[in-house]
């Protein structure tokens, strides 16, 4: 390819630019692609000790529907053991949930030593709005309690789709509710 023309390609765009537009086009293309992708980071301090909180997250398949029936109807393991890489869980949300009726999550990686799990949403209403949605959760010690770090990386299905603020708010609520539940237990 010569310096006179440039071709930018992504999953959804293909643009040929002549020599006068190559530099300007690259910046515009990169901005357009970046506008459909995003990342949200959240940190929540909890009073529960790190090991207890992490173990509860790892047992969320069983614990969440029992502890939070107003949020979760059920969580079912459909592939694997529900905790290891490659496992797939079907999450059915409670009636009236503002989030969705269901989602399927696939565990991408687990680091027990660093108390980190990474998952991708692979099915459900979320996928109508986002081409990809990957979450990461890490629990670290903080004083007598823990610091829960949640991050999501996403690619919107279109420009008019908002950032997943509702999902972020739901995650934060879950961490706070889990902390309160574990303190009472």
Automatic annotation (TrEMBL):
Q: Name one GO molecular function term.
A: abscisic acid binding
Pfam families linked to this entry: Bet_v_1
Tell me which Gene Ontology terms the entry assigns under biological process.
Answer: abscisic acid-activated signaling pathway; defense response
| Classification via InterPro entries | Bet_v_I/MLP, Bet_v_I_allergen, MLP-like_ligand-binding, START-like_dom_sf
Q: Which residues form the Bet v I/Major latex protein domain?
A: 35-185
The entry sums up its family as follows: Belongs to the BetVI family.
Protein's name according to its UniProt entry: Bet v I/Major latex protein domain-containing protein
Q: Supply the source organism for this entry.
A: Anisodus tanguticus
Q: What is the lineage of its organism?
A: Eukaryota, Viridiplantae, Streptophyta, Embryophyta, Tracheophyta
